[in-house]
Design brief:
about 150 residues, alpha/beta, Maf protein, 5-stranded mixed beta sheet, 6 helices, globular
């Protein structure tokens, strides 16, 4: 994470996050790095659908695709970037535990407002508990970020 934050600082690229299943872990890890206040514009933990909707995610999109979808992650990323007037917006939604009908997975999206481009990743999560799965989601973010060219 330190390399990403330093890259953002050096290139004057701002970031904002809207996190659900990770509960703000990405923003927390960004703020662990000195100088992060120069690039982290805003962070929202929208664990409930109510607050995703208040932050601009369409209720119709949630109803049509479910809250655990690429479409919702994209709307989260877009809306947080616009809300915070940030170059990058990150949307994270998913399931950290499984049940009979649903597997553990995450949809993560980075929106680049300068180029109006989305970078998305879906990943099934394999760890045993929620904390380990949250850390795996951060690894997903790092890999996705490093695959881009901001």
């Amino acid at each position: 994470m330190e390399e990403i934050v330093k890259y953002l600082i050096q290139n004057k690229i701002t970031i904002a996050t809207m996190e659900s299943c990770t509960g703000g872990l990405l923003a927390s890890m960004i703020t662990d790095i000195p100088g992060a206040s120069d690039i982290l514009k805003f962070s929202a933990v929208t664990y409930s659908n109510e607050y995703k909707i208040k932050m601009g995610v369409s209720k119709d999109v949630i109803d049509k695709y479910t809250v655990y979808s690429e479409q919702v992650a994209k709307e989260m990323a877009y809306n947080i970037a616009k809300f915070a007037d940030s170059r990058l917006g990150v949307g994270i939604t998913g399931r950290l535990t499984s049940n009979i009908l649903e597997e553990k997975s995450v949809d993560l999206c980075i929106y680049d407002s300068k180029n109006d481009k989305y970078y998305h990743c879906f990943k099934k999560l394999e760890k045993e508990n929620r904390k380990e799965n949250k850390l795996e989601v951060i690894e997903v973010f790092v890999k996705l970020f490093n695959s881009t060219n901001f």
